[in-house]
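Worked problem 6 (solution included).
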Amino acid sequence: MRSAWRGALGTTLIEVLTALAIGSIVTSSLYLLVGSTIKARLIVSARVSDQERGRLAIGWLADRLRQVNFDAAAACPEGLLRLGSGRGFGGRVAFRAIIDERVMPPRRTYIFYLDQETLWQETLIQEDPEQCSDEVDRRRPSTTRVVVAPPPVQDFRLRYLDANGLETGDAARVRLIRVSLTMRATGASGQLESQSHETTVALRGP
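Solution. The predicted structure is:
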């Protein structure tokens, strides 16, 4: 009787240990599976977020470029003031545009440039005759500048085209502006990679 009890106990102990081992394997597998799923989800979410950030930045700039406004009756008639490459404050693009008719004055000067891996925007009022040449000669960024795209922005480029699609440095002949933005963003592997966004904007005014 005692021998049979010991045998039953030994069998039960073996079954318990086997069940625990199987349970540990299943639990580890589930942990790895859930961990991989969460990691993949986070990578996808980060990638979508980074792509959306790039699209929003270039869309924001394009919307403002479309409103470039030449006003022959204004004290400062020019629409495009500086045809910069976009790199650095010295290579800034500057133009006058009407974004909101409700603000006074409705036409503002908009400036965009890449500096310290950040795409910046400045919005200034420069309609007084004494301010007409200020933007061309200004040497320092405005203290009120705001971030359009945070770092790391790798590259920001602008190309100016005439009505025939040929590059031009003459502001009066510019009809199209090609904008490209390259950012360091999350790739499919979860590592940072370069993502480029590009658009061509047709100016409304002369």
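Discussion: The helical segments are 2-65, 134-137.
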